[in-house]
């Protein structure tokens, strides 16, 4: 991809209304723009990150047997009345009337809607278990939208819902999603903890939050340094440095975190309210047992930046970077452009659609600053002096490590070193 063809409006300074690092850098790097309070555009660079997040989620959801579908975003009042949530949800539920005076809302979450499909289509134990998910825009009319993508009104979420025959099977399924979430956040390249959580308005009795560790996080968590145990500070019995009596007695460490995902065991809360029944092996009527599993996609993007940045800009983990390589031609001199063209072609053959060639007719300093700002993991810089010796410079954005290497060794070095990213 040529930077001269890419809509990447970078900014020198942070917009005044951006308070947190991720909001500032995503605006400055040309990843997002604000349309209205809590409502954002994803510009091409931002959308590339979103798509990388979504691709990993899809693979891991499909791997545990969940099937993707897409539900409507405009939802009729009736189902919300059936569970009673039309009246308890409050102002976060954005409601409106159509031309026939029928009440609707914009979907903030889809337990009612998915349960309605399943109760209509699933009759027999033979059709269970069933898990369905979607990746979709949600709307919650947050009282105080803030921090850019972190707490928006309109945001993208992956929401998955499982239907099982028995409590025991549903709890086993919960464990499988818990493991799938660990895989997802590990594949993102993020430091995170799975934290015991309360179940809030969604209801149910068993829940974990997935927290990306970042100093700017709103949540305080304690985590055992020897096992997997972690909890919100209100729930935890132990503090920093103390040993924990909820797990293996290891020493507890304090962290701040950003909630990017949550898994819930719902039990029969929704299947009871909406009469989602099936017939078991003996022909007896039973309630389906449910779970739900969400990941905030835009918030994951913001949390990734909160965990990876420096004075120059964003530092993406390779799996989520909009491009894995940025090739910077320090001038538009024909020899340099020819060399870059060769490198671009060869690199793109090995890493399709993952190379951004900054071919713009801009000052070298502007291009190098932009490369740092947008946080591409590996920079390849082609300038006149190196080229005379047949060399290019390669830099690891995260470590700052730089070296000059022969052009014909480039692919080999990338594939056999930590530049592989
Ligand atoms: N206002 C928001 N803006 C961005 N992402 C959100 C917002 N609200 C929730 N999310 C994301 O969606 C995920 C699932 O939402 P859920 O757990 O139902 O919401 P909450 O934690 O607000 O009750 C959250 O873990 C979070 O990543
Ligand atoms: Mg939550
Ligand atoms: Zn422990």
Q: Determine the oligomeric state from the structure.
A: single chain
Characterize the biggest β-sheet.
Answer: 9 strands, mixed
Annotation, overall tally of beta strands: 23
Distance between the termini: 19 Å
Name of the CATH class of the largest domain: Alpha Beta
Number of helices: 12
The dominant shape is elongated
- Give Rg in angstroms: 24 Å
Architecture of the largest domain, CATH level 2? Answer: 2-Layer Sandwich
Which residues sit in consecutive blocks of at least 5 with pLDDT less than 50? Answer: none
What this model shows, in words?
The chain is α+β, with helices and mostly antiparallel strands. It has two domains: 12-310, BirA Bifunctional Protein, domain 2 (2-Layer Sandwich); 323-420, Anticodon-binding domain (Rossmann fold, 3-Layer(aba) Sandwich), CATH 3.40.50. The chain contains twelve helices and 23 strands. The chain has helices at residues 21-28, 44-63, 77-83, 85-88, 111-121, 167-187, 269-273, 297-307, 334-350, 364-374, 384-388, 410-416; strands at residues 32-36, 39-42, 67-68, 74-76, 95-97, 103-106, 130-139, 154-164, 192-196, 206-213, 219-224, 230-232, 252-267, 277-279, 285-287, 289-296, 309-310, 313-314, 325-329, 355-358, 378-382, 391-396, 402-406. The strands form six sheets. Strands 3, 7, 8, 9, 10, 11, 12, 13 and 16 form a nine-stranded mixed β-sheet that branches. It is elongated, with a radius of gyration of 24 Å. The chain starts with 20 loop residues before the first helix and ends in a 5-residue tail after the last helix. The relative contact order is 0.13. The model has no long low-confidence stretch (mean pLDDT 94). It binds adenosine-5'-diphosphate, magnesium ion and zinc ion. The site of magnesium ion (MG) has 2 residues, from β13.
């Amino acid at each position: 991809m040529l930077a001269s063809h890419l809509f990447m409006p970078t900014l020198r300074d942070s917009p005044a209304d951006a308070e947190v690092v991720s909001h500032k850098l995503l605006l400055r790097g040309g990843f997002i723009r604000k349309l209205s309070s809590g409502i954002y555009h994803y510009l091409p660079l931002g959308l590339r990150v979103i798509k990388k997040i979504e691709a990993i989620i899809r693979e891991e959801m499909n791997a545990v047997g969940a099937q993707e579908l897409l539900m409507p975003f405009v939802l009729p009042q009736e189902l919300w009345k059936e569970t009673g949530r039309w009246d308890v949800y409050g102002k976060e539920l954005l409601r409106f009337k159509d031309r026939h005076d029928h009440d609707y809302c914009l979907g903030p979450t889809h337990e009612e809607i998915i349960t309605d499909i399943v109760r209509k289509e699933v009759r027999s134990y033979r059709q269970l278990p069933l898990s369905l998910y979607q990746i979709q825009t949600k709307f919650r009319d947050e009282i105080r939208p803030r921090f850019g993508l972190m707490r928006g009104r309109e945001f993208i979420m992956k929401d998955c819902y499982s239907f099982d025959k028995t409590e025991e099977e549903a709890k086993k399924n919960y464990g499988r999603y818990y493991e799938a979430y660990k895989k997802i956040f590990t594949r993102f390249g993020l430091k995170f903890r799975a934290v015991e959580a309360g179940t809030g308005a969604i209801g149910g009795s068993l829940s974990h939050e997935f927290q990306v560790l970042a100093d700017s996080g709103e949540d305080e968590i304690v985590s055992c340094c020897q096992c997997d145990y972690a909890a919100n500070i209100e729930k935890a019995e132990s503090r920093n440095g103390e040993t924990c009596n909820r797990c293996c007695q290891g020493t507890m460490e304090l962290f701040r975190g950003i909630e990017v995902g949550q898994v819930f065991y719902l039990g029969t809360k929704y299947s009871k309210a909406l009469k989602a029944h099936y017939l078991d092996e003996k022909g007896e009527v039973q309630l389906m047992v449910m779970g739900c599993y969400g990941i905030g996609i835009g918030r994951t993007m913001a949390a990734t930046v909160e965990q990876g940045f420096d004075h120059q800009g964003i530092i993406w983990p390779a799996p989520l970077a909009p491009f894995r390589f940025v090739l910077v031609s320090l001038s538009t001199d024909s020899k340099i452009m020819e060399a870059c063209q060769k490198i671009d072609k060869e690199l793109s053959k090995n890493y399709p659609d993952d190379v951004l060639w900054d071919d713009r007719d801009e000052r070298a300093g502007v291009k190098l600053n932009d490369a740092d700002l947008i946080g591409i993991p590996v920079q390849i810089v082609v300038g006149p002096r190196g080229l005379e010796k047949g060399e290019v410079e390669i830099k690891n954005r995260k470590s700052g490590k730089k070296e000059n290497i022969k052009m014909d060794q480039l692919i080999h070095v990338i594939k056999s070193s930590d530049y592989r990213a």
